[in-house]
């Protein structure tokens, strides 16, 4: 019988496992809405508790260990200092979300109820009919009658220099990772912003702007990315040697390249302006932590980017959104081959999970997970987070199907 950690690492190394490893909440796109989490706890026959909201904007619950046990999940998270592997009672404070949800949050004073009953948080708003916080334009307005906004690169270099990881942060993370590692035999998934390079198709000016800059100002984008790499390599060299023996998977990049039908920019843009910089970071990580796996989150129809993603040195691709772009899950698996592990993709989240019956969810998840797990290189999860509208019965059917 393998431990959860062995099961996950065997799968990621394309070695034999006793069953398909599973994840709920290892990172902020494989989790569950805090609004639906209490129903899941009840449906599993577990004692009631207030959900801990780890990601405030997406309103995601931090899965408890007994929930992971009940669903057979093999991963714990460390996310910017928060973990579900050990108790951290000092971090959590009760907040009732204007009567909509009784929960625990980290910073209750940051929430503000406005006159119409909506709740504000750092400029974002959750109206009474919503389950997440939104902002106008998705925070990314586009004005075609003005010049495209461009970051002042000298100012960016100075700002990133001020944001370099501090010795005290390294000590704090070392201790937390050590405690987590010693507390569990599950795989440890580290989500730490200091290691996630500020390189993204939508990081500077948004999805409407930055792809245009890649076409019109490639030299500017190349210089910007070189500055981002310099900053990230400093953090990697300072932190990774101190924690690498305690963590198994690192969120090294979150960069949504896909729409429902295609990519925001061409594969050639990725090869020219992203691949070399991603590769420099990934090569440094592999040299410093050869046993730690590097995780890329990239939503949408990115099938045509699988090959350059492999060339970039990533070990894992998530969320495996095979319903987008017209390629089957079997085609995604074949393209990844034995070179890139897949994490997610367990069911068509926008259609079957949302609108199908429990039996349909179970049947599709069983079929998909078997195909993606063939030959190794697969960890089961939904395509992105389990939304508030998804019933507990479907969640349970989803995870039991992967057994």
Give an account of the 3D structure:
There is one protein chain. The mean pLDDT is 96. β4 (75-79) and β5 form a beta hairpin. The chain has an eight-stranded mixed beta sheet. Strands 1-3-2 form a three-stranded antiparallel beta sheet, with no helix packed on it. It has a three-stranded antiparallel beta sheet with strand order 8-9-10, with no helix packed on it. By secondary structure, the chain is α/β, with parallel strands linked by helices. Helices cover 37% and strands 13% of the residues. The chain has helices at 4-12, 37-43, 65-71, 153-162, 167-183, 210-216, 218-243, 267-273, 275-288, 306-311, 329-336, 352-355, 358-373, 392-401; strands spanning 32-33, 53-55, 60-61, 75-79, 82-83, 93-95, 103-105, 111-113, 119-121, 124-126, 187-191, 249-254, 293-297, 316-318, 341-343, 378-379.
Low-confidence stretches: none
The shape, in one word, is globular
What is the makeup of the main sheet? 8 strands, mixed
Q: What is the rounded distance between the termini?
A: 14 Å
Number of helices: 14
Strand residue content: 5-15%
Structure summarized in a few sentences:
With 403 residues, the protein is of the alpha/beta class. Helix content is 37%, strand content 13%. It contains 14 helices and 16 strands.
